[in-house]
Amino acid sequence: MSTQDAKAQDLPSRAGHAVFSAVWWGLLGAALLVAGITARLGWWQLERAHAKEAVHDMIQSRQQEPVLRNADWGAEPAPEAWLQRRVEVQGVWLPRFTVYLDNRSMKGQPGFYVLTPLELPHGPVLWVQRGWVARDRVRSDWLPPIATPQGPVTIEARVVPPPSKLMELGSSGPSAEGFSTLRHNVDLEAFRSQTGLPLVATLQQTDAASDGLLRDWPQALSGSDKNRGYAFQWFALSLLSLLLFAWFQIWKKLSHD
Q: Facing residues of 160 across strands?
């Protein structure tokens, strides 16, 4: 047998020893683990995209439903199925219960959300997020005066959940003097209990800017494109980990042995 033939017969055994060593199996396990984790993260981002699209479709669908008017409101809290529906009601503002929610931004500028209850003629009260006003750059705790019309007013709005809560160190409930106008957070049930008002829903006013308030509320975009982009990146990392292992631990070793 020639030397060349002996080397050819010895190649499989040497390749097998080089490729299928304990280190090789360890690297294979690591590659599969990384590929599995990144692939799962990719599917998770796709699931989030689908969930956001479902919520967006729900919002769009409810905004096409008939407008809710005075006669639709009763003493019972608004059903969850009314969320995001359009509203056009007439009532009277209750300015003594106006609340400024601190640390709320609009277009990157710090300020306050202003909420005032609106009493309907037949009794129910709607808690209206009227708009946003900028914070004073020098006196951060100074509350800009808001013009609140007296007498009956007609507003356009949509039904929304209560304002989101921010992290805070202390309580933002009633002050020692009684009703607190400036707050970091406010809870619908606690506000109803404190004021005794028969609040049945939270609205977000959508009229054109007025009363010194801005109403450039965020648009109802699904945001699913961002999650799909993240999913693509995770899937690409998953595939890359497998390709790198195949190149360096299989192809390169076999080609050099």
A: 202
164 phi and psi angles, rounded to 5 deg: -65, 150
Half-sphere exposure of 58 (CA within 13 A, CB side): 11
Q: What is the mean pLDDT of residues 60-65?
A: 83
CB 200 within 8 A of CB 117: no
CA distance 11 to 175: 84
Residue type, 205: Q
Tally of CA atoms within 13 A in the half-sphere of 93 that contains its CB: 21
Is the per-residue pLDDT at 171 higher than 60?
A: no
Residue 205 in contact with residue 157, Cβ under 8 Å?
A: yes
Alpha carbon 43 to chain centroid, angstroms: 19
81 vs 38: CA distance, rounded Å = 37
Q: How far is CA 183 from CA 102, 104, 129, in A?
A: 6, 11, 14
Please state the length of the chain. Answer: 257
Q: Is the pTM of this model over 0.90?
A: no
- Give me the amino acid identity at 228: R
Q: Indicate the domain borders of the chain.
A: 3-57+224-256, 85-205
- Distance (Å, whole) CA 23 – CA 14: 15
State how beta strands 152-160 and 86-93 pair.
antiparallel
Strands 109-119 and 125-134: antiparallel
CA distances, 70 to each of 74, 79, 121 (Å): 9, 15, 8
**For residue 228, what are its two tokens?**
């799909």
Fill in the amino acid letter for 8: A
User: What are the C-alpha distances in Å from 42 to residues 3, 39, 134?
Assistant: 52, 5, 40
